[in-house]
Amino acid sequence: MVWKILSSITALCLAGSAFFAFDNSKKVKIEKELLARAETNQQQLLDRKKEGEEAQERKKAQLAQIEKDRDQAKEDVVKVSAEAQEKEAALALLKTNLEQVSQQVSVLDAKIKDAGDIKGLIAQIEALKKDQLAAEGEVANKEQALSQAQNKLAELKGAVASYEATEERVRKGVVEADFSARVSGVFDEWGFVVLNKGNNGGVFANALLEVKRGKDVIAKLKVKNVEPLISVADVVKGSLVEGNVIRSGDMVVATADQPAVDKGGPVKKPTTEETAAPAAQPIPTTPPATSDPFGAPAMGGAAPAAPASDPFGAAPAAPAMDGAAPAVPASDPFGAAPAAPPAGGTTPAPASDPFK
What we know:
The protein is an alpha+beta fold. Helix content is 47%, strand content 11%.
């Protein structure tokens, strides 16, 4: 009787041992799976850390290039400003010379009233008027060259403002107000998501974003790592609306409370009226001359000779034939392209930009 009881107890013990052995083997299998998964996740995190460090290095290189471009643009602004000042000084000198020639012409016109019909004096007056027209053409050319220099200076200032705004966006992590992207991957257990846009799409590190579904904001994100085509953003703790989960394909937009950035803007360019060259004055008819405008009497009744040279250092010009209008100088003394002869009393524009 006792052996039967012992046999029964032994059988029960064996059955319990088999049950616990089976249960322990199942738990060991589960633990092995969890260990393998943890090792895989650890490797993925290490890979992502390496990718983040590489992205950070690329971002630093990009920032250094932007700063280099900004410094180059500033140097260009200084150079163009110096050129504009030189042109303004040259323009002021030409205007002074034009005023002197105009005064000489006025003196000659006043003396012509007392002079007789002296061909030499008429030739001298025509030469001075030719110099006046040439000076007016040079003034017009320099004014247009100055206007072009001012336009170029305004463009460079606008470029500098754009570089500075881009640098500030990179530093503050601010995206454009109309920025949008999509969630391409969700890692709930690690608290981050992957976006389908990166540097090339206008994403910056530390940018604050919102996940929208329809018109509702269901979560807030903060960009952590950025690559050219994708970026990784952490889900801001406590921002996920209860009862919602972030899914792949959700819309991501810029948050409304991101830091303000000065966008700079293009510098105002001079208007057409401000840069238009003054029209050349028409040539008045020459009255007969009776005396030397400089006070020297004619010898033997002969007409005084025309001036041997231009008061500004140019070669002597031949008198106009048959009443034709005198030609403008063949070239700009500051290197501009030759200007066409004036037609209809208007001042010709230079054929090319003297700053290019």
